[in-house]
Amino acid sequence: MKREISGPQIHVNRIEALTDGVFAIAMTILVLSLEVPSRNQITSQSELVQNVMGKGYQFMSYFISFFVIGSIWISTIRRTHILRKTDYKHFWLNMLNLFFVTTIPFTTSLMGDYGEFEFAELLFHFNILVLEIIALVQWQNLINNRDLIREDAIDDANLIYYRKVYIFHVIVPLLGVAVSVFTPVWSNLVYLVIFFRVFFIRR
Known about the structure:
This protein is mainly alpha-helical and 203 residues long. Helices cover 65% and strands 2% of the residues. Residues 4-9 have low confidence and may be disordered.
């Protein structure tokens, strides 16, 4: 079934394809934040092991960023899956969402290399915060324009539940901002809370 945007024929399926492509590229580029040591830096296996083991914080930043992007991708899939059609507001909000997705590899690299500096951590948290706010606005737009949603896709109870989920996801990076004021290096650990969301939000 083709789902489309009113006006010029831009099908929702095309938006889904673009979205999946951008997320896939961003998640792939993210691994470049893990720099391989050059040959002139390493003269023995022990030095190689020491160099790799010394990148523990970079690996942690990569791990967290990968699954944060994955969480945002799942959230995006959830919104596009229930669409019967879309409007230009939702269309451009989606483009804005993809723009900030493409900046995550940069802010992750910055955080991995300069995690001891509050600015690097804050930039990452604000990157995620903007993405979560956009997601909340998109969801609210769908709730306010129910004609965009397929009738068989979701009921009122689920709409309320997912709104709570989106609000929760906005709170997490705000918590990261607060933690980074006191301990910048470990502030990105707040995103692990996402894995325990089920304990905070009930249907």
